[in-house]
TrEMBL record:
Residues 6-108, 148-279 form the EamA domain. Belongs to the EamA transporter family. It is found in: Cell membrane. It comes from Mycobacterium aquaticum. Pfam families: EamA. This is EamA domain-containing protein. Keywords: Cell membrane, Membrane, Transmembrane, Transmembrane helix.
Length: 316
């Protein structure tokens, strides 16, 4: 994949991620979170299994155990994210999830984090505060709070993924499939326990709903993962971070343009601070221009940025 093509593909990932909040909001309700997740990740896992085909036979025990562990945390991320977006705007959800970039390096410890990163992080946090107060002063809504929890869990997932793969040659594509399958299994189980009938939900979906579900499963999950694995080999952390860091901007733009999310002066200022803070922070964590994740044939190598600059370079 040439560098220019890789950059365009990564920008495409940022766009589909930014649009995923609006798609989820249109599809899910507070009562159908687990059912929607079950269908989304069953489809995503099946599609990725078809893509990797024969490589499935070579899955190892460490890939299974690590994938299941990380997949459980990933399920918690998506459960919070999906419920949260049903209780707040798509714009707020996308921007608040950018807190992942701030929290992830801090989970690795202060050693190796540039002092200026704290200024960048404070800028992003100030933007998030403005977002939650965009409609008037008061405590954050339940949706904003749950999305904030999802961002912290996402940072925990990134940190855990880095630790379980450090120094080990694991096939990240097979691990990704195990994680997607874990999310699917947990979601099906929770949907059954909570009385969210997946069959009834599927039967009541319109053609438009099915298109949104396929978009979330194939574009926002499988396509995004495949592009990252390929493009990260042709780019640098600074370029990857800059391109993927535009995700909250796309979430804000699409939310305002397509869902008529309210636009206020405080909200615009907050969105600008979030985007500036996260992009600034990402660039500070990859100052040397060398890739912190090297994939050869889909195998995750052990080289990592000591500041935790994995960010969202390999995500699902």
């Amino acid at each position: 994949m040439p560098t220019r093509t890789a950059d365009l593909a990564l920008l495409g990932v940022a766009v589909v991620w930014g649009s995923s909040y609006l798609a989820t909001k249109e599809l899910a309700t507070g009562d159908t979170v687990f059912g929607v997740l079950a269908m989304r990740f069953v489809l995503a896992a099946a599609a990725l299994a078809v893509l990797i085909g024969p490589r499935l036979r070579r899955v190892t025990a460490p890939e299974l155990t690590s994938g299941m562990l990380c997949g459980t945390v990933l399920w918690a991320v998506y459960a919070c994210e999906t419920y949260g977006v049903t209780r707040t705007s798509a714009c707020n959800a996308g921007l608040l999830m950018a807190l992942t970039i701030v929290v992830t390096p801090l989970l690795h410890g202060a050693r190796g984090v540039p002092a200026r990163f704290y200024a960048a992080g404070s800028t992003a946090v100030a933007g998030c505060v403005l977002l939650t107060q965009a409609q008037g002063f008061g405590p954050p809504g339940i949706g904003d709070a749950v999305i904030g929890a999802a961002a912290v869990l996402r940072a925990g997932h990134v940190t855990l993924l880095g630790r379980v793969t450090a120094g080990r040659e694991l096939d990240i594509t097979r691990m990704a499939l195990v994680q997607l399958a874990t999310v699917a299994i947990l979601s099906v189980g929770l949907a059954t326990v909570t009385g969210e009938s997946v069959n009834a939900l599927a039967g009541g979906m319109s053609p438009g709903d099915w298109l949104l579900l396929l978009y979330l499963a194939l574009a926002c999950t499988v396509f995004a993962f495949v592009v990252q694995v390929r493009a990260v080999q042709r780019s640098t952390p600074a370029r990857v971070s800059l391109l993927l860091g535009t995700e909250p901007l796309w979430a804000a733009v699409l939310g305002a343009a397509l869902a008529s999310d309210p636009v206020t002066a405080a909200g615009v200022c907050g969105a600008a601070l979030v985007v500036c803070g996260t992009v600034w922070g990402q660039r500070l964590l990859a100052p040397d221009g060398r890739a912190d994740i090297r994939c050869q044939g889909g195998v995750r190598k052990s080289r990592r940025n000591p500041a935790g600059g994995i960010g969202r370079n390999v995500n699902y």
